[in-house]
Recover the amino acids of this structure.
């Protein structure tokens, strides 16, 4: 069944989950997401946004862009799925990246071309699979493949960048002000996404997130347990020579 988000639901997603209703006029950094699948257009876009990251190479730019793109694609879609039981269509031919000129920090938003959403009727598991397919197989997997072709960045880095934000959204952000019933649904969805969902929903042979969603460990650099990364995102190569590694970086030598 197709419905619309309510005004209250839209307000939440606009305020906290990177959704926007209006295009940014005369922005040099907004584009139809489908253009990311055109190697020439995608390369041009990565070169254009590189200064926002103070990136020294197209490889580093691709990794840092992937972090932002995964968040804007997943955040509102996951919130709507797990809190509203509504499916936002974020397949790649239905979204625009909207970004302010010279914004600091560079935090783009997502705009839907068709804002009609799907609503749960009977089988939530089947419905959820279709929502997840739209997020991953019909969007992120296609963009990650394009970035890999253009920059030679390993897809393992791009999927771990994705997994980090899946973990953050479901372990922290989506739980804010949630009822007991919503918390149970959030936990169920999270477990399914990272442990049980088949690879076909991600456009891959197997679930690409499971490997990056293991237990947290205690390290000296953090007061709280963290998941150690298995791949490096290249953040340390940005800005100046004193930039430190992320505390979870695999390049850090540990006892």
């Amino acid at each position: 069944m197709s419905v619309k988000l309510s005004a209250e639901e839209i307000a939440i997603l606009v305020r906290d989950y990177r959704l926007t209703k209006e295009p940014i006029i005369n922005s040099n950094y907004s584009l139809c997401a489908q253009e990311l699948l055109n190697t020439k257009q995608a390369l041009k876009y990565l070169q254009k946004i590189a200064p926002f990251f103070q990136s020294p190479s197209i490889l580093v730019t691709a990794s840092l862009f992937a972090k932002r793109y995964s968040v804007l694609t997943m955040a509102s879609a996951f919130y709507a799925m797990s809190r509203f039981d509504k499916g936002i269509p974020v397949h790649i031919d239905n979204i625009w990246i909207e970004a302010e000129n010279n914004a600091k920090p560079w935090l783009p938003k997502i705009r839907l071309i068709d804002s009609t959403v799907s609503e749960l009727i009977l089988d939530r598991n089947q419905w959820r699979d279709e929502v997840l397919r739209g997020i991953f197989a019909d969007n992120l997997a296609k963009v990650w493949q394009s970035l890999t072709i253009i920059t030679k960045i390993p897809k393992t880095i791009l999927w771990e960048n994705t997994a980090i934000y899946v973990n953050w959204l479901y372990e922290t952000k989506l739980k804010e002000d949630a009822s007991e019933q919503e918390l149970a649904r959030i936990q169920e969805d999270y477990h399914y996404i990272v442990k049980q969902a088949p690879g076909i929903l991600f456009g891959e042979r197997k679930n690409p997130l499971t490997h990056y969603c293991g237990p947290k460990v205690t390290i000296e650099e953090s007061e709280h347990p963290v998941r150690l990364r298995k791949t490096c995102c290249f953040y340390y190569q940005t800005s100046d020579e004193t930039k430190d590694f992320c505390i979870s970086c695999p390049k850090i030598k540990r006892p």
Observations:
- Residues 52 and 103 are 8 Å apart (CA to CA).
- The domain at 2-211 is CATH 1.10.510 (Transferase(Phosphotransferase); domain 1).
